[in-house]
Amino acid sequence: MRIHLTEEEAAALGLPAQQRIQIAERPSKPTEAAIRRAILAYLLIGETRGLWVVASIVQPNVRYPGREGSLSGTPGVADILLVRGAWKPLRFDVRWSSEALALELKAGRRKQSPAQVEWQARWEQMGGRYAVVRSIEDLEAALIAAGWPVLERE
């Protein structure tokens, strides 16, 4: 997948002007780190275009005091949280509303841990959307299912 960046977008991402970015839809080595790089490149381009905000990115190998065994501070929390705002029509008014989408990145056939399944259930009970993502195709399917925009391809 190739995406052409404007000069402003390239500058915001710290890249040379008129940079074209190639994002591997299916990384050659489908490790979680490779998937994370491809997904984050896609999401950060979308953020520079005002489509959403990357609200939380869990950093690997970061430990928080009192949370031994958890990389994120809260056991089971999704790897990436996206937030998007929109004007929502109500019966007699229009209000600003935000929506959140939680993304859990997985490589290959890896499954969610019990803590991740529990966090997903709590998140969805509060009205949040959640997706397990293994590729750019999975990410775009989750965005479309949530009614969010996807990036145009060249």
Order of strands across the main sheet: 3-4-5-6
The backbone outline, from C-alpha atoms, is: globular
Protein structure class: alpha+beta
CA-atom Rg in angstroms: 17 Å
Order of helices and strands: EHEHEEEHEH
Q: Count structural domains.
A: 1
Number of strands: 6
How many H/I helical runs?
4
* N-C termini distance: 7 Å
Helix content: 25-40%
The average pLDDT is 77
Largest sheet: 4 strands, mixed
CATH topology grouping: Trna Endonuclease, Chain: A, domain 1
Proportion in β-strands: 15-25%
How would you summarize what this structure contains?
The chain is α+β, with helices and mostly antiparallel strands. It is built from four helices and six strands; from the N terminus they run E-H-E-H-E-E-E-H-E-H.
Structural write-up:
It is a single chain. A four-stranded mixed beta sheet has the order 3-4-5-6, with helices on both faces. Strands 1-2 form a two-stranded antiparallel sheet. Helix 3 (114-125) links the parallel strand 5 and strand 6 (129-133). The chain contains four helices and six strands, in the order βαβαβββαβα. It has one domain (2-145): Trna Endonuclease, Chain: A, domain 1 (3-Layer(aba) Sandwich). With 154 residues, the protein is α+β, with helices and mostly antiparallel strands.
